[in-house]
Amino acid sequence: MRDWERRLYLTAHPFAYPLLRGLARIGPVVRVPGVGVVVNDAAHARSVLLDGEAFRKDGPGSPGDLWTPILGPSVLLNMEGEAHRALRRKLTELFTPASTTALCARVLDAPLKDLAGRLERGEAVDLVDAMRVMAGAVICEVIGLPDIDEAACREMFERGERIVAMVKLRTRTLNPAQVARAREVLDPIGDIAARAFRRGDETTVMGRMRALGLSEEEAGGAAGAFFLTGTETVATLVPRLVALLHDTGELERVAADPSLLDPAIDEAMRVTTPTPVMLRSVHAETRIGAVTVRPGDRVLIATHNCCRALGPFALDGAPGKAELRRLWFGAGPHFCIGYPLALAEIRAVAETVLRHAPVRVVSRRAARGVLIPTYAELTIQKAA
Ligand code: HEM
């Protein structure tokens, strides 16, 4: 069986991917001119992520350089210190396992019934397209745009994808034309979010943000951040999970034993790492392993290398994997705030697909020109 994960990465990043994987063989921490200090090992990655004083998400070479011009200065993913802690504290209860499971059950009820019906009838279903619609529906509900039709969900997904695709692995800042294009998409999202915030309905995510004490501006910024970080990551993971289970011959085992689904999702996240790198800007002279870093240096944590060091997808064995402690969602103060929502969404769709096992992959294609490696198409069908 062809290594489709490698193929997805190579199709998305034909030059950067071989370079990134090659760096993992050079050492745990490597300075690469023009790129920054690359961290390839989980222990060093964690030490960087936990040290919010020396390694920050604002300053030169940080994610702030990329996102602040389009999202504003205070949207979690470009904040640090007390202001960041205060906003995270307010948002602790925003996405809980219970609230996100309920949200997905509600929003995905109709699309999942549709997916189940099509699989049941033996139709060939493009899981990539189905997932784009569903991830679009969930994120629209989150930002305050409920009950929109399939075409509008797909359109919202594509708008987000176009912004994310502006970023290449070496991109440090977006140019003015890119910023203008991104703002054309994000400004209306801010307006939608603001209206939902003002309505204050506490059964909605935006309404809850108001109840949790966020200002309208903070809530609008958070909505933009959720839209950019919480759509493609989830949508791309599900087809990759199903393909990995299929290709490793594990699909029917997981379908027969629901207790294996969460470990399978974790393992698929480890192998795929939907966020393959994390960036930090150095604010104080210090060391990462044997490498000295100075203010102004850029640190690129190669999450993908850290996670792939433990080998290819395998449901059993490798107790060391637990030590990664879900590094694919980050670590420390910036640990992914949306992870309960991501898991609820992934579980809901995966359970529906697995209920129709055995499922076979009819055809598939790797996507070009994307930041997050993914399938452009993954068509599945209930095996006769
Ligand atoms: C498979 C799905 C997802 C993956 C793999 C993922 C991964 C990550 C990672 C690695 C980080 C930390 C980045 C860093 O420290 O530099 C992060 C942060 C974040 N994620 Fe996710 N994410 C996912 C889904 C979501 C969803 C569904 C949402 C929200 C709706 C979301 C919202 C955020 C936000 C707002 C942050 C910034 C948090 C902060 O800086 O305090 N993510 N995510």
UniProtKB/TrEMBL annotation:
<comment type="similarity">
    <text>Belongs to the cytochrome P450 family.</text>
</comment>
<dbReference type="InterPro" id="IPR036396">
    <property type="entry name" value="Cyt_P450_sf"/>
</dbReference>
<dbReference type="InterPro" id="IPR002397">
    <property type="entry name" value="Cyt_P450_B"/>
</dbReference>
<dbReference type="InterPro" id="IPR017972">
    <property type="entry name" value="Cyt_P450_CS"/>
</dbReference>
<protein>
    <submittedName>
        <fullName>Cytochrome P450</fullName>
    </submittedName>
</protein>
